[in-house]
Design brief:
The structure is a single chain. With about 350 residues, the protein is an all-beta fold. The chain contains 1 helix and 29 strands. The protein has a 5-stranded mixed sheet with strand order 5-1-29-28-27, with no helix packed on it. The chain has a 4-stranded antiparallel sheet with strand order 2-3-4-6, with no helix packed on it. A hairpin with a 3-residue loop joins strand 28 (about 345-350) and strand 29 (about 355-360). It comes from Clastoptera arizonana (Arizona spittle bug). One of its GO terms (biological process) is cytoplasmic microtubule organization.
Length: about 350
């Protein structure tokens, strides 16, 4: 496993000098491999999925340095500490940590079911080790996690599979998908009992209650042809979770999970349309205010919007695209909000960079 590399001095280029007053914190790191996904495992560590020039995959868990919690820091740093890692000859298509469990769930191309791994918890080992594989009829499924459960989907002709991660077994098959719509599917848990499935091709939704197979609702999307689409939720609150739907053209819908008849919000964000071969755009709610959303995957930036009324761009993080030697086709691959501080995010990009940043308001 390779440690993160970088310059320990402040990155004093024109971009930093021009934008330094926009940030409370900005810490920039560089790895030596292409970054596909980055997920926080807790408030102080993250897992990163990378690949090398030969196509081999590598997952590393890093400890985030103490400097990201200091009051003010603007630095191009090299102190990402490697905790553990693993190599894989399989093509990994999705990676999610089980929060507070020090475990990792993976989906792999052309392999049915999901694989479960232990993250190293002590200094006796630095390896991420596989401890279980949950087999089901779904090949290379997309999945969403809620506590010790997972919901798996594959395509519109297959059922959704509910999995008990603690027992490492499938516990329920739900025939909730509309087989008349040919589409890749994306599931997201709303709360302990409900999940939503997005038809990525058209943006239509299925809302399913796991307690009853026939208790589901189909929400057609009137903007067919404006996709592909992605979906996310504001959290796992039973009472007031919001669901957001975003297309590659910038159309955005927000629903109250208690009332699906009409979206709470619908508008179009002023974003660049994705190249046809890109599908890794992401939308997240701010953990402190569901009127604030963040969007990435359209270009080398992370865009933050206030959608309390007409969409207003609150902030644009341009750090990934302003790294020395950055190629013009660099795109942000993932981003997340830190919940412990206001306006604080972490993002990764295909140009091997990871950046922690807190913007001024």
């Amino acid at each position: 496993m390779d440690e993160a590399i970088g310059d320990e001095e402040i990155y004093e280029n024109d971009w930093i000098l021009d934008t330094i007053l926009k940030y409370k914190k900005l810490n920039m790191y560089e790895l030596d491999k292409t970054i596909h996904f980055m997920e926080l495992t807790d408030h102080s560590s993250m897992c990163v999925l990378c690949s090398n020039s030969k196509g081999s995959y590598e997952i590393s868990e890093f400890t985030l340095p103490d400097i990201i919690y200091s009051e003010n820091s603007i630095k191009n740093a090299s102190d990402l500490k490697l905790k553990c890692g693993m190599f894989s000859t399989d093509i990994i298509t999705q990676m999610k940590p089980i929060q507070k469990e020090h475990k990792l769930v993976l989906s792999k191309k052309e392999i049915s079911g999901i694989s479960l791994y232990n993250l190293a918890m002590d200094k006796q080992t630095d390896e991420i080790t596989k401890y279980s594989h949950i087999t089901c009829e779904l090949v290379n499924p997309s999945f969403s996690l809620f506590e010790r459960k997972a919901i798996l989907v594959s395509n519109s002709t297959d059922p959704a599979i509910l999995v008990d991660l603690e027992e490492s077994k499938s516990i329920l098959s739900l025939n909730c998908c509309n087989s008349s719509i040919q589409s890749v599917l994306q599931p997201v848990f709303i709360n302990n009992n409900q999940f939503v499935v997005c038809y990525n091709n058209c943006g239509s939704l299925i809302i399913q209650d796991v307690r009853q197979d026939d208790c589901n609702q189909f929400i057609p999307n009137p903007y067919v042809g404006k996709g592909p689409w992605t979906v996310n939720t504001s959290g796992n609150s039973i009472n007031n979770a919001k669901v957001i739907l975003l297309s590659s053209c910038g159309f955005v819908f927000v629903f109250d999970s208690r009332k699906w008849s009409e979206p709470l919000y619908k508008n179009k964000l002023p974003l660049n349309q994705l190249p046809k071969f890109e599908t890794n755009y992401t939308v997240n709610f701010s953990p402190r205010d569901t009127n604030i959303i963040s969007v990435s995957g359209f270009d080398s930036n992370v865009h933050v919007y206030d959608i309390s009324n007409n969409p207003r761009e609150v902030f644009v993080h341009e750090g990934h695209g302003n790294v020395e030697g950055c190629e013009s086709n660099t795109v942000v691959t993932s981003h997340s909000w830190f919940g412990h501080e206001e306006n604080y995010l972490i993002s990764s990009a295909k140009n091997k960079t990871i950046q922690c940043w807190q913007y001024e308001t």
